[in-house]
Design goal:
With 127 residues, the protein is mainly alpha-helical. The chain is 75% helix and 0% strand. The protein folds into 2 domains: 1-53, no CATH class; 56-127, AhpD-like (Up-down Bundle). It is built from 7 helices and no strands. The longest helix is centred in the first third of the chain and has 16 residues, at 3-18. It is globular. It holds the Pfam family CMD. Residues 36-119 form the Carboxymuconolactone decarboxylase-like domain.
Length: 127
């Protein structure tokens, strides 16, 4: 796949998973470095999602959730937990993932992730 094709595919996947409103909001930042930074994030992080291979968007979403929880990056965990259904992840799968996070990353990571999931389920979606 050519670089431009992969970047376009990465952008499309990012929009499909996170939603146009989120991606457009990030692109609206007036900071002169913001556009370059967003292009970099799209090319690197979302470029991985655009790779050909055996992992589905669902698989990739579950992996991102596990990794962001393991790293204690709850803001990113929240973003991806909210977006996980668009990648094909069910609520039941997220519930089971919380047990995996607690077992392999420790109780504090599991508890923090569970708090985020509970909050997302009891708070209406923004936008």
């Amino acid at each position: 796949m050519a670089d431009d094709d992969q970047l376009q595919r990465a952008e499309a996947i990012r929009r499909a998973v996170l939603g146009d409103a989120y991606v457009d909001g990030m692109a609206a930042d007036s900071d002169p470095v913001a556009a370059d930074f967003q292009a970099y994030i799209t090319a690197t992080a979302w470029g991985v999602w655009a790779r050909e291979g055996p992992l589905s968007n669902r698989d990739r979403s579950l992996l991102v959730l596990a990794m962001t929880a393991a790293l204690g990056r709850m803001e990113e965990f929240r973003l991806h937990a909210r977006s996980a259904p668009r990648a094909g992840v069910t609520a039941r799968e997220i519930d089971e993932l919380l047990f995996q996070i607690a077992a392999y990353c420790g109780a504090p990571a599991g508890v923090a992730a569970r708090r985020v999931v509970r909050e997302l389920r009891t708070t209406p979606e923004e936008g």
